[in-house]
Amino acid sequence: MMATYETVIGLEIHVELNTRSKIFCSCATAFGEAPNVNTCPVCLGLPGVMPVLNQEVVNLAVKAGNALGCEINLINKMDRKNYFYPDLPKAYQISQFDLPVCTGGFVDVLAEGKKTRVNLTRIHIEEDAGKLIHLEDEAYTLVDYNRGGVPLIEIVTEPDIRSAAEAVAFLKKLRAILVYSGISDCRMEQGSMRADVNISLREVGFQGLNTKVEIKNMNSMKEVFKAVKKEESRQLQLYTYGEGHKVVQETRRWDQAKGRTLSMRSKEDAHDYRYFPEPDLPPVKIDGEWVESIRATLPELPDEKKQRMMTTYGLKEAEVDILIEEKEIAEFFEATVVESGEARESANWIITEVLRVMKHEARIPLSPRQLADLVLEVRKGTISRTAAKEVFEVLLTREDETAAIIEEMGLKQISSADALEGIIQGVLEENPQAVADYRAGRTQSFGFLMGRCMKASKGKGNPGIVKQVLEDKLGS
Ligand SMILES: [Zn+2]
Question: Are 435 and 391 members of one domain?
Fold first, then answer.
């Protein structure tokens, strides 16, 4: 009988912290500057320099621990992780080995209708390395040390994840928690959040862990999903074809263009990092009261926000999930509801229209006031839904008030029965046969007359009012 396998995934996520300066020097952390501008002897690792730990790094790491339900280790320490590679000019990285800042913690995720608790092993502080730029057709590599010494936390999960969808749901939730708390901007495309995916397969029922493969440095949720799917099927094939085709413990790289993982290095050349306590930095001592004072600065986190929004606005869980995934969208939604008093309609517009536009541009394309007014004008019957879509497109390009744009576009509906009366009377006089049919009981001619009236009003008649006036007139 064929064995059934399940996927076992653990993640290691590197997150750049939202500090203005680097972890051990006062160089700026700004992204997108000219290469090697934000450097000094400390972050270039020149001999004889002394690192000084940036207090804000510890603050943010503790805040992350608080937000993720971790235990904060009141005494923790920095260690040297030795390796020789040009992205790290000191030939060692200052990290944390056996006494990290946080241990434990968890994130609850919902994927494919299934709720799972993903436990965290630890969170530790470390410095980022520089960036190597490999040029095609050139015999050399460029290096940019602006990123060297940018503060990171590394979040390590237990192998609690069982599918690609769960891995992505976890990353989304983690990202939301960190962005809401102001710990990091978590821009995967800029590298401020990167994930290493450890993946193995095992027979269902077996509690141990089989040989795992690590896929390094994933910088997009979509690619994480694809890479896990691909690696699952690669390993399943190896298990299926049995002896001689065993999974090898190795680090693999995801080739985005080719859609497959490629071997980078095997266990044989795995590094021995020769960790030892960093001699230039004293242990990090944290005061328990101070941990609580940082906890008090945490904002409303995604889970609480979700509960509150479902109760307050009567929205479905799936809708709220979409609205809270990005902090700025959640804020935009709530600001629009404050202005409009219409939660359901505001949510619909944001989920269908605003997020559609935002697939192509990073910023929210209109103001809460503009959207709220649009919702209200439809509700009042000033414009039809179809017309509102046209107005929305114009709002994307202009800062004018919604009412002014409706006026200018001449899309106002005619909602006054008096104003519609003449138009409808005209239609009835032009179509005596249809009127006679209707009065003789052939009610389907009502639709025909309705269409004629809408056309005669050049599409501006408020359909509800037109129907009402028409019914009155036919009934008389
Ligand atoms: Zn520096």
Answer: no
CATH classification at residue 445:
1.10.10.410
Span from the CA of 136 to the centroid of ligand 1 (angstroms): 29
Residues of the chain above pLDDT 90, percent? 69
Ligand 1 centre from 275 Cα, in Å? 23
- What does the alpha-carbon distance between residue 463 and residue 151 come to, in Å, rounded to a whole number? 60
Q: Which one has a higher pLDDT value, 151 or 206?
A: 151
| Domain end call among 293, 320, 335 | 293
pTM: 0.84
Strand arrangement of the beta sheet that strand 276-277 belongs to: 92-95, 79-82, 276-277
Same domain, 53 and 197: yes
Residues 246 and 313 both lie in one domain: no
Distance 25 CA to ligand 1 centre (A): 5
Question: Residues whose CB is under 5 A from ligand 1 (ion)?
Answer: 25, 27, 40, 42-43
> In sequence order, what DSSP letters do the residues of 151-208 get, joined into one string?
EEEEEEE-S-B-SHHHHHHHHHHHHHHHHHTTS----GGGTSEEEEEEEEEEETT--S
Tens digit of each residue's pLDDT (9 = 90 or more) over 437-465: 998 888 889 999 999 988 888 878 888 88
Give the Å distance between the CA of 245 and the centre of ligand 1: 48
Regarding whether 319 and 284 lie in a shared domain, the answer is: no
Other beta carbons within 10 angstroms of residue 464's beta carbon come to: 11
275 with 318, same domain? no
Under DSSP, is residue 264 helix (H, G, I), strand (E, B) or coil?
A: strand
Q: Provide the domain count of the chain.
A: 3
pLDDT at 419: 81
Q: How far is the CA of 142 from the centre of ligand 1 (A)?
A: 19
Asked if residue 314 and residue 289 are part of one domain, the reply reads no
Q: Residue 80 C-alpha to ligand 1 middle, in angstroms? A: 18
- In which domain, by residue range, is 150 found? 5-293
Residues 255-288 have pLDDT tens digits of 888 888 888 876 555 568 999 999 999 999 999 9
Question: Residues 405, 423: one domain?
Answer: no
Residue 398 CB coordination number (10 Å): 13
Q: What distance in angstroms lies between residue 280's CA and the mean position of ligand 1's atoms?
A: 16
Q: Kindly report the average pLDDT of the chain as a whole number.
A: 92
Q: Do 242 and 286 have their domain in common?
A: yes
Question: Which of 409, 429, 448 is at the close of a domain?
Answer: 409
